[in-house]
Amino acid sequence: VNSQTVKEAAVEPGGEVVDVLLEGRMYGRYTQELGVYAKEEAARLRESGQRRSVSRTLDLLEYDKGRCAKCRTQKWMYGGLDSNVFLQYLAWVTYPVVLITFSAGFTQILAPQAVGSGIPEMKTILRGVVLKEYLTFKTFVAKVIGLTCALGSGMPLGKEGPFVHIASLCAALLSKFMSLFGGIYENESRNIEMLAAACAVGVGCCFAAPIGGVLFSIEVTSTFFAVRNYWRGFFAATFSAFIFRVLAVWNRDEETITALFKTSFRLDFPFDLQELPAFAVIGIANGFGGALFVYLNRLIVQFMRKQKAINRFLMKKRLLYPALVTLLISTLTFPPGFGQFMAGKLTQKESLVTLLDNRTWAKQGIAEEFDYIGHSEAWKHPQVNVFVTLVLFIVMKFWMSALATTIPVPCGAFMPVFVIGAAFGRLVGESMAAWFPDGIHTDGTIYPIVPGGYAVVGAAALSGAVTHTVSTAVIVFELTGQISHILPVMIAVILANAVAQSLQPSLYDSIIRIKKLPYLPELGWGHHEKYNIRVEDIMVRDVRYITLNCSYRDLHNVLLTGHLKTLALVESTESMILLGSIERAQLQALLSLQLGRPRRLAYIRERAVEDKKRLSVVSNDSSENSSHRASQEVRFQVRGHSGQRCKKCFQPFKAHYFQSHRKKCLQNVTAEFCMSSKITEWEEKQLDEQVNFNNCKIDPAPFQLVERTSLHKTHTIFSLLGLDHAFVTSIGRLIGVVSLKELRKAIEGSVTVKGAKVRPPLASFRDSGTSSSENEATELHKLWDRHKSMPLPREHTPSESDEKSQ
Amino acid sequence: VNSQTVKEAAVEPGGEVVDVLLEGRMYGRYTQELGVYAKEEAARLRESGQRRSVSRTLDLLEYDKGRCAKCRTQKWMYGGLDSNVFLQYLAWVTYPVVLITFSAGFTQILAPQAVGSGIPEMKTILRGVVLKEYLTFKTFVAKVIGLTCALGSGMPLGKEGPFVHIASLCAALLSKFMSLFGGIYENESRNIEMLAAACAVGVGCCFAAPIGGVLFSIEVTSTFFAVRNYWRGFFAATFSAFIFRVLAVWNRDEETITALFKTSFRLDFPFDLQELPAFAVIGIANGFGGALFVYLNRLIVQFMRKQKAINRFLMKKRLLYPALVTLLISTLTFPPGFGQFMAGKLTQKESLVTLLDNRTWAKQGIAEEFDYIGHSEAWKHPQVNVFVTLVLFIVMKFWMSALATTIPVPCGAFMPVFVIGAAFGRLVGESMAAWFPDGIHTDGTIYPIVPGGYAVVGAAALSGAVTHTVSTAVIVFELTGQISHILPVMIAVILANAVAQSLQPSLYDSIIRIKKLPYLPELGWGHHEKYNIRVEDIMVRDVRYITLNCSYRDLHNVLLTGHLKTLALVESTESMILLGSIERAQLQALLSLQLGRPRRLAYIRERAVEDKKRLSVVSNDSSENSSHRASQEVRFQVRGHSGQRCKKCFQPFKAHYFQSHRKKCLQNVTAEFCMSSKITEWEEKQLDEQVNFNNCKIDPAPFQLVERTSLHKTHTIFSLLGLDHAFVTSIGRLIGVVSLKELRKAIEGSVTVKGAKVRPPLASFRDSGTSSSENEATELHKLWDRHKSMPLPREHTPSESDEKSQ
To answer: Can you tell me where the transmembrane regions are (chains A, B) (predicted)?
Structure first.
């Protein structure tokens, strides 16, 4: 056995050499100027923000170095002070607390949207909902710097969610930049496709796993997937992963391109068939564990929210919560203290490397007698069994990770969960190795059990259970560079998913609910006959519309009250026949054209010619009236417009104001007052004119449903086509509108009301206690009761629905 | 170097041992009773047809054994006759010719639908088009037996397409069987989902590659993919792959579950960074190769079709073409003849195993001096260089595979292409090894180049190029059990795809075009502004509809003339307001209820009572008239109905006939004639009655478009929702209908007419010569010209469109 061990050890990648090299180079540069470093990094990132995948990888590499350096600094401070335990403790604790507090504060000040994972937000954005503030440059800077500090603290935090968000930010900024040059980048649906590819890049370069990255991002962000995007995701993710790993080679960290956490299990006999039940046990246990993790995470958030007293105190001192949590966690992992029983001195990466080790740590309950090389010795404690260390590690890290991911810094939960899963797998593997010291295989050769393989299975299963994905299987293969355990991993992941999906929503869906993001939930499958709700039950009957012969004043009023992105155009109020839909921006353009600068100037010039002929004194009263009118109009324009167009609208108005002012200075003050009053009159006249739709872009085929379309069909159409709203027509006449909001309410409502539950594929026995939509349900309940008590409307008479729709 | 070689050889899986074992066991059983064996196998398969994945794997295993046995028999015959070259040749050639001829004949007689790959058909079926005869039990039997024989012949034929088809057949038969018990299996959309999972199973258990299988089947069959199906695919594919490999263990072929073509490349340094250009070259070259393969394959088919003389002759002797092709190919591979220069004596599987070998065959142009163990010696020829052998192998196999896949037997092209790609990769790898005998890596250790890794890259790239998929990368990892070459493989596959997609359609799309299957082509991306065609340009204005107050006679007439699955229900012919749609089957049920047995019997009883009172003689003339009427009705019922319902409809009619006959025997013949005439009268009266829609299932929200909906939007909606047809309405009034057929014509037409091309994502410079739709284009061309010369219809007046729609 000994010779084999030595051979295996020789096969190990030269981890130690790299570490020493890194340490040598880093000490000089990084000691305390973290702030300076962060600024530098941000500047560098800003420069390179245009070339996505390259910048993606550069920042990754930088951050990787940064983290190593910081951890090492912490260790060095801690190591250099080994004469005094108290000083050691201070050094151990100060670092993370300072970093996390800085990260939380920085993020809070610059862009609070950068907090958290980012995957739930991306899921919502890819669904077609606009969450504008999540894709700005500010958020980008906050996310990058905040993430760097948060990860540097050594807390059990992940990076895959933030990476997805950062990649998407890069893509969004890139396409905003490219749209300056016009062309295809102006297309909005193209932007969504770019974001989808960016998500794949994010995961792909986080783990150097292009295939797993693409699949994971699909599973996590999409409901329906266009296969043509798949190709693009692969393209982007492959190049990002490639450049990520190439830089490691150029940097002399690696000799060639290899996997990030390369394992070296034996190839000829990876596992015995009779070990499969053990793998299945890992899968099922991790399924329960994953559900528990999601539940625990949500519980902590809800507990913090409910406790009003704590909440009020923490709201005042926003940085106290992160600092306290960090203090607690780092105190518990302090190596001379409790940390010695749970390999506290290892970073997340080191833990994972040791857990995936191909050597067995224990044989028949006693630690094996080979030298624990490098980090592995952290798991060995003179008094305590390796099993106890592992159990403590799992239990402590479990709640620590669930707690740490609630800190308001940019962070994910994938990596901590992955490590816990690996530890659990290792525990089962070590137990199996202790139980069957000569392996299970019966005939001929002795093949000892490989606990590292169990760790791989456990990692994939737990992270799959928490995120409700199967592609974690692919990620572990790419991460470890070995695919020999494919069947155990697949079986464990599928079982873990089956269990976890039936107990809890995925972590991302849970966050979507906690954050109340506008995401359309899934309809349960096989239950759709139970959703006997029709569009007429949920539609909003009070539709904002414009008629073919409406005046600009009507347009003005409609724009002030509505909230939908497009407005219905009907033939007349009497017939209500739907002709098409017009975008809000188009209508605003029409309005500003009518009241805009050129026409005003023309009018003023005309007036000026007239005024030269006669001079009259006007009362002060009328001027007040005019200024009131003007302010009113400004208010309307500010409220009615949004974003870019707002500025554009203001421009003519302001320009007009100053222009007229300058001109009028030549004349006397009273004439000016007179002018203002005239302008007001002119505006009133303009508003009463009939709208000319000639140059307006009308969508002749807006999406229509009929009143009796089922909820299930509506949901399918909305999710497939990524609709925001659809008009409801009855024999061609507009009678209502359904938007995402109504649909969401109806679906969430039906969870508690109708017995048909909203659930993922395998959720056959999830308790309904997790949904917090009881209050929203009542409304639908009422609707439904009303509907039932009424006779089913076979045919609406025109007069009836006309009344309703007005 | 020598000691290393020995060690590596020892690591090789015990292929030889297994071979010997197999040989020993098989000789007794299989010599010539192929027919008996095939029958037995079919019987066994028929029994086990219900448990899909198990049966799937069983048959796989059986077939695997079968193939081994047959190849071995062929070799044994050939080996035993080494005294006489002519006899050897006869033995070598007879086997494949007999097997292929049998396969072609059997398939032709039983179910011609079983010919070919099956993936194009599945793609069409998953799109929502019903190709009923492709999923019958007959096809299943023909496909299984035909495939077994075709593969046993040793021709360069694949099995992945047929496996997909067989798995889908299993799923279809299974769900047909399960629907007897009712429940969710009756749902049609559920069946489509089952078929999607079955496709994944098919690929998954063909290569023991669950992940690659799922991805490949998605890429090959779908345009838009529901992520919830993904999970199911994984579930099914994992278990099929698991059981496939477990059976190999139980069968003592393998010690434990491993990859199908396990490689053993070194893990620590799989390849150097500077080798990447070589991998990229493989990718690009294979891209061109893949396009050439598709082109060659289509060329052969079209050539055979065009040559009228050959064609007529071959049509008479259907089995001659397969026999001739087989004879040609097996003559060329005859080992003592030309076959000695192209490793002709190896089967496809053996070739692949040797090509993926981790040893280098040549160093500096000279064959290395280690013993070629086992099959590898086939590549070594005393006079000829290894490079020449490889080049000959690639060139010969290339056209042979393209030719062989046109034989009308159940076969795929994936595996032959895969082997050719591996050979090309090996060629590049061996050249690199000869060029850099000590490897490229510059500092320190010598890492010789691994030509086997190049073979893996080449295999993935060529098969990816031919099928236009990226997931072949995943398939090779699962097939070889090693993932160390992930980046080279990904890069090569992406480059190969980029080249191939820009030159040719995928093999499956090419077959879809050749077979003229009703598949909706893709719209090019980025070009959709150019498709300025609207629904009104392509819709059929002559819609079949029924009105609320129509008579049964109208129903009858509409059913006789229409072809759509559902019919529009409008308020009245004048208003044409669309109220909903009714399925054809529902209407047929209405009609048979009106003219059906119970009502007939009631009428006859009534008449009988009346007739007892009076006896009158009726002229022969009226009886003739009646029989004419009856036959007319029968004809209508046969034409109008389909499948199950047809029988049901006949039943009451026949029953009535005999019933009335029996009854009337009591009375005299003239009374019977009178009766018939009365019944005819009664039927006429029934047909004139107004239809009662009360118990009819009306879809209140059929899919509607408006006349100005763009072609792009229509295409998106059709593909996303899998529609068959949609009604076109103008302000609520039905004015036309668009079905898949019209849409397909419009899209294909626009290839040549409008300049906007129908192409896959990367097809930027494909020549348009591949499309054979010039004749279809003219129609649209005319339409378009007409449309242009006419003023754009702003608003159809009611009278105008009413006229058109009738």
So the answer is: 163-182, 194-218, 230-250, 276-298, 319-338, 386-407, 414-436
